[in-house]
Amino acid sequence: MHLKRSFIVTLVLACGVGMIHAETTQQDESTDLDALYQQIDEAILQSPQFVAERERQIDACRKRLMKKQSANDSIGIAEELFLLYQPYRNDSALYYAEMCIRLANALQRPDLEGRFRSMLAFQCSNAGMYTESLEQLHLVKKSALDKKGLCDYYWAWMHVCGEIGYYTQRPNEQLSYYGMQDHYRDSVLMVAEEGSEEWRHLKMDILNARRLFQDALDINDEWIKKVSEDTHEYAYAAFYRSMVYDKLKNHNKLCYWLGKSALADIRCAVMNQASLLFLAEHLADDGDIERARNYMEFTKACNLFFCPHLRNYQVNSLVNVYEKSNQAAQSRANMILIIASCLVILLLLVLIVVVIRLRKR
After folding, report:
1. How confident is the model at residue 13 (pLDDT cuts 50, 70, 90)?
2. Residues with Cβ < 8 Å from 239, sequence gap 6 or more?
3. Contact in structure between 36 and 262 (CB atoms under 8 Å)
4. How far are the Cα atoms of 23, 66, 119, 155, 213 from residue 112, in angstroms, in the given order?
5. Biggest alpha carbon distance in the chain?
6. In sequence order, what are the residues at sequence separation of 6 or more whose Cβ sits closer than 8 angstroms to the Cβ of residue 226?
7. If we measure between CA atoms, which residue out of 137, 88, 89, 135 comes closest to residue 116?
8. Separation CA 59–CA 53 (nearest Å)
9. What is the pTM of this model?
10. What are phi and psi for residue 312, nearest 5 degrees?
11. pLDDT of 325-348, one tens digit each?
12. How far apart are the C-alpha atoms of 87 and 85, rounded to whole Å?
């Protein structure tokens, strides 16, 4: 999952009616965090079954591809394999994206070639491979792209520019890449179908930035209704709902929707995990260290399966949970030491009293 950077927004009176309606929505939703966490715990235990199901789908698709002879017959199945691997295993997704490019080139379809290069570029930048992403985007013939191709092309540019802007330590470069990110965001909105995942994603980003939280929740309501639960698309929608509650500082709703997003991804055998890692951080802050560590270890294993190296935001989240865990362990050790010291002192006092009484006798 492509991650959004979490930040705190101060709510002011300018939020007006939108804030009032947002508060009403918060009150209307019920959240049973204990029951949800239990579902996540069970899903983690059942994870091998979900992985086996995705592998079954991949194997069936691969067998279909082997039976095809022509590029025209193969290209659609190769794209299916790319989409199956996209959130599951990065190196295989890259392989099938490149196969799609070769097949499109053999068919002399620059429109398809450009769209697949854009998809490959996004996959690269999503895995921290920014140089490779830019290389692919520079190879795209923009004039050959149809509307769908343009949407994927602008989306890939938007993503890689945002990532580079976030991680660079050069202020001028950061402003330049953030400006490019804004430009490509506008371009995506111009070509994306209204109501599509890309459109809802960006509209929620914009409304959140403007503190129009109820409008963002209204879009998300439609998004949630459109997708089926236990799908990767639902995980996206739930994740973006959690972002609204993060800005509203509603901790329970934030954790609830992060949990719903994580649960859907686990059941879909998505290895590019984000929501569960963020949830682990919040659980660690709440003092639920054991569950936070369990979620963190599971997420770490998933992300390393997806890509052999952890990305910066993942390392930071893991370090935060480890620090909270170490602090909790240190606090327990200090408490045990204090209790032990008190017992020793108490025993010494009892011993002194006994010795004094024996001497008097």
Report:
1. very low
2. 1, 4, 257, 258, 261, 274, 275
3. no
4. 46, 21, 11, 16, 38
5. 110
6. 195
7. 137
8. 10
9. 0.81
10. -55, -45
11. 555 555 666 667 677 778 778 777
12. 6
| 297: its two tokens | 């270890």
DSSP reduced 3-state for 192 = coil
Query: Residue 205 corresponds to which tokens in the numbers above?
Result: 């980003």
Domains in the chain and their CATH numbers?
A: 1-49+211-361 (1.25.40), 68-192 (1.25.40.10)
Which of 64-73, 178-187, 344-353 has the least mean pLDDT? 344-353
| Angstrom distance (rounded) from CA 64 to CA 152 | 26
* 185-189, 273-277, 349-353, range with the lowest pLDDT: 349-353
3-state secondary structure 233-290: HHHHHHHHHHHHHHHCCCHHHHHHHHHHHHHHHHHCCCCCCCHHHHHHHHHHHHCCHH
Task: Give the type of residue at 304.
Answer: L
| Digit-coded pLDDT (tens) for 219-240 | 999 999 999 998 999 999 999 9
Tokens at residue 134, please?
A: 């830019």
Q: Say how far residue 178 (Cα) sits from the centre of its chain.
A: 21
Report how far apart, in Å, the C-alpha atoms of 346 and of each of 268, 332, 340, 355, 357 are: 57, 21, 10, 14, 17
CB 240 within 8 A of CB 220: yes
Residue located via tokens 């620059």: 110
pLDDT greater at residue 247 or residue 323: 247
Those residues whose C-beta lies under 8 Å from the C-beta of residue 354, and which sit 6 or more positions away, are: none
What mean pLDDT is predicted for residues 144-170?
A: 95
CA distance 288 to 285: 8
- Distances from the Cα of 144 to the Cα of 101, 135, 164, 285, 315, angstroms: 14, 18, 27, 50, 40
More confident residue, 25 or 111: 111
Helices (H), the chain: 16-28, 33-45, 47-67, 71-85, 90-106, 110-126, 130-138, 147-167, 171-191, 197-209, 213-226, 232-247, 251-267, 275-286, 289-306, 312-360
